[in-house]
Amino acid sequence: MSNISDTTADADREHDWREAGDAWGHAANDWAYLYEHYALDVMVAIFQQIGIADGVRVLDMACGSGLALRHAEAMGATTAGIDAAATLVEIARDRNPDADLRLGSMFELPWEDGTFDAVMSINGIWGGCEAALAEANRVLQPGGMIGLSFWGTGTPNDLRGCFKAFARHASRSTSPA
Question: Which of 6, 62, 63, 165 can bridge 130 by disulfide, Cβ–Cβ 3.0-4.6 Å?
Fold first, then answer.
């Protein structure tokens, strides 16, 4: 059985985050201003489940143009995000000047262990991205919450493997959340 660092190395070989960034970033303004808002309902549901509120430190993996971060900040959260598309990160920085926004790979998060109270990804972590989920777990505080949404079922959107990877690394606490 491989450990997390082996899984991360495998993911880096399988997923070229720069290629994904080029694909998602080619029409960044169109995405940010014409399409991104489609996810408002799921964003609100995720916020409720992971407890976005004043003082919560939240990371948005595959943050796109930063709409979710903007709303989390408005609710008092301290925000950070990462995305593979430089053009989307530029828009996110304009929208969220106080956020810690980075260009990079969700398979190698540039934050220390236990940095965040919550991690979210709205349609950003798909099947085959189990190593990204392991990274989300790594940067979460013990007892932290993660909220994910994804498009549809079947390859590459089937996330059962991601949830299994997350469960392998989750706390064994028996106390209710």
Answer: 165
User: Which residue in this structure is represented by tokens 């299994």?
Assistant: 164
* Coarse DSSP helix, strand, coil percentages of the chain, rounded to the nearest 5 percent: 45, 20, 35
Residue 13, helix vs strand vs coil = helix
- Segment 39-78, tens digit of pLDDT: 678 888 999 999 999 999 999 999 988 999 999 999 999 9
d(CA 121, CA 39): 11
Instruction: Say if residues 139 and 110 touch (Cβ distance below 8 Å).
Output: no
Domain locations along the chain: 4-169
What per-residue confidence (pLDDT) applies to 177? 42
- In the CATH scheme, what is the code of domain 4-169? 3.40.50.150
CA-CA distances (angstroms) from residue 143 to 28, 50, 75, 76, 137?
35, 11, 21, 20, 10
78 three-state secondary structure: strand
Residue 5 CB partners (closer than 8 Å, separation 6+): none
Q: How far apart are CA 113 and CA 98, in angstroms?
A: 21
- Six-digit token string for 96: 């969220």
Using DSSP, state whether 67 is helix, strand or coil.
Answer: helix
